[in-house]
């Protein structure tokens, strides 16, 4: 091992900025030996190797890592050396967009991952993915299309629990779900102002995690109910703590981000700080990380409320404050949070989710309900 160049290993299993990781009393190391990638366990002797380009795609690294961790946790050991043939690195590379943050977190765009490799790594883990969405007042009309489109595109082949928070359970339509999926209705109070509803979202999610969903799901995504899925949303989005780049600000300079600039707010971000502007309509990660994230945001919201302050963009301002100092381990490109009222940019090769349904879409959706 001496003198060999190491390969940095990163999320989604764990954020691993070091060169090795101790798991279950074992130490896993990744390194390159000339043109061969090797991943092995010191204790068990589990070893995988493949002779390919030195520029190994991140998804291929993760496949080796996750498979090794899975065998370690379950006590299983393969009888023979396991080899993985890596696709050419060029098939995972895009030079027209930013694909890595300064803190080495991946930014997920179409063309930067291989779904088959990721599914081969994650599906043996028997994960359950949770989704929260709020349908308060008139927003109950979006539930049907949200669920129907999610059933077609969201985490296909995985178990999924939908948690719909609503003040009107009777207004939630019945949607046919796949056998591995279920819908839970979470009653919630309706507030008179939408700003108050927005501010209460973090509190409601945090409480639900503590009381129920921490026992039911491994990962949790918190989404807006007026989203429509148009293309696959899969395992490429799984990570320790995941944020989405806001489609309205990914091309503008940081000085124009609508951060909270008042220093007396708990959501304050000074000039010159911050990395991206993140949308509040999408965030997620490991259930434990989402719990800590929502708890922190709820506490800063309460601090502002005690001082008679409402941040510029309510919970989204507090979300951006948190991510400015606690970097997300994975970023989703605007493909995962596109606004259908805006023209599609050339970089956005595959819009996966549209949000903020325009009048035409609402009309067509209501017509569909009547039929």
TrEMBL record:
Annotated membrane topology: Single-pass type II membrane protein
Main location: membrane
Record keywords: Glycosyltransferase, Manganese, Membrane, Metal-binding, Signal-anchor, Transferase, Transmembrane, Transmembrane helix
Binding site for UDP-N-acetyl-alpha-D-galactosamine: 134-136, 139, 224-226
GO terms under cellular component: Golgi apparatus; membrane; vesicle
GO molecular function: globoside alpha-N-acetylgalactosaminyltransferase activity; metal ion binding
SUPFAM superfamilies, per the entry: Nucleotide-diphospho-sugar transferases
Subcellular location(s) per record: Membrane
GO BP terms: carbohydrate metabolic process
Pfam (any one): Glyco_transf_6
Enzyme active site: 316
Amino-acid positions noted as binding an alpha-L-fucosyl-(1->2)-beta-D-galactosyl derivative in the UniProt annotation, renumbered to this chain: 246, 316, 339
Cofactor binding comment, as recorded: Binds 1 Mn(2+) ion per subunit.
Needed cofactors: Mn(2+)
Residues the entry annotates as binding Mn(2+): 224, 226
Lineage top rank: taxon: Eukaryota
UniProt keyword Protease present: no
Family as reported in the entry's similarity comment: Belongs to the glycosyltransferase 6 family.
Protein name: Globoside alpha-1,3-N-acetylgalactosaminyltransferase 1 (FORS blood group)
